[in-house]
Design brief:
The protein is an alpha/beta fold and 272 residues long. The chain has a single domain, classed as 3-Layer(aba) Sandwich (Rossmann fold). 36% of the residues lie in helices and 26% in strands. It has an eight-stranded mixed sheet with strand order 2-3-6-5-7-8-13-14, with helices on both faces. Strands 1-4 form a two-stranded antiparallel ribbon. The protein is globular and about 55 Å long. GO terms for molecular function: carboxylic ester hydrolase activity. Keywords: Hydrolase, Signal. This is Alpha/beta fold hydrolase.
């Protein structure tokens, strides 16, 4: 018996869903976090991996690197969520209140949210700069069962040494008694709590608990977070993959596509 066209279309619509871009707000540590979820074509009941993409200090979810990684993952059938940390981009909260510990809280809340999505089969994480520090500590806290794979891109573990020296992004202060805030660019104020928590932040100590698949990508021309900080992650994560990009800077501006491809390819390999 031949089915009516409208019924055929209805059946197809229930079996297949289009690739979808969804903008939403997720509760974070200091208010709601602005996020974008990109989901590939999925049949009804089909699942796929999800990657959390985390931006760096004063960055945003819509930075070229973050968007490029999301696009490459989507083409391989992997969903992603990009989000602005508290006090950044379109998220709530004040930049002056932002710290690495409360960014980790943000990431844990986002992880909890995507873990509850019915189509998510596993979760990977990638982070750039300070987002790489957050990604490393998130992986250490949650473990390989909850974070299947992690990619660090120019991880800025130097932020702890900067706080100990009292020199963050060229702004000088007394590390033992930092001011209420220091003036950054674009009128942003970096708060005292950031400096105090960064001073004793257990970055490598926390990250070392992670035993899952890991990759580090770092440029030798990085003057913000020298590549030796990336090498240390490679040392503590036995069996991790390490890509040292000659003369590449902190933002991978010489070949952004290469850096994004390395990140996406590693996640695709270990999540599919």
């Amino acid at each position: 018996m031949r089915l009516p066209l409208t019924l055929c279309l209805l059946i197809l619509a229930t079996l297949f869903s289009r690739a979808e871009t969804q903008r939403l707000m997720i509760p974070g540590s200091h208010g709601n976090l602005s996020a974008v979820i990109e989901t590939p074509d999925l049949r009804q009941g089909q699942k796929c991996p999800m990657v959390m993409i985390m931006h760096g200090f004063m960055g945003s979810k819509d930075s070229p690197l973050e968007k490029m990684i999301a696009e490459k993952l989507l083409s391989a059938g992997i969903a992603s969520i990009r989000f602005d940390f508290n006090g950044h981009g379109e998220s709530e909260g004040e930049f002056i209140d932002m710290t690495v510990p409360n960014e980790i809280e943000d990431a844990i809340k986002v992880h909890s949210y995507v873990s509850g999505l019915p189509y998510v089969s596993s979760i990977g994480v990638t982070g750039h700069s300070q987002g790489g520090v957050v990604a490393s500590m998130l992986a250490g806290k949650l473990g390989k069962k909850k974070v299947r794979s992690v990619v660090l891109m120019a991880p800025a573990a130097v932020l702890r040494d900067d706080a100990i020296r009292g020199n963050t992004m060229g702004k000088i202060y007394d590390p033992l008694n930092p001011p209420e805030y220091i003036e950054m660019w674009n009128g942003k104020k970096l708060g005292r709590d950031y400096m105090l928590t960064a001073f004793s932040l257990p970055i490598y100590e926390t990250a070392s608990a992670y035993t899952g698949h890991a990759c580090i990508i770092h440029g030798t021309g990085d003057r913000v977070a020298p590549y030796t900080y990336g090498l240390r992650f490679h040392d503590i994560w036995k069996g991790s993959e390490y890509h040292q990009l000659e003369a590449e800077d902190h933002g991978f501006s010489k070949d952004l596509d290469r850096a994004a491809t390395l990140s996406a390819d590693f996640l695709i390999t270990h999540l599919k």
